[in-house]
Amino acid sequence: MRRLMLLRHAKTEHDAPSGQDQDRRLDDRGRLDAAAIGTWIGRHPPLPGAVLVSTAVRARQTWEIAGQAIKDAHREQAASKWQVEFLDDIYGAEPARLLQIVRMTEVTDPRHLLVVGHNPGMHELALMLTGSGDAAAKQALQDNLPTAGLAILDFAIDDWSEVAFRGGKLVRFTSPRLLKQASDE
Question: What is the pLDDT of residue 76?
Answer without folding.
Answer: 58
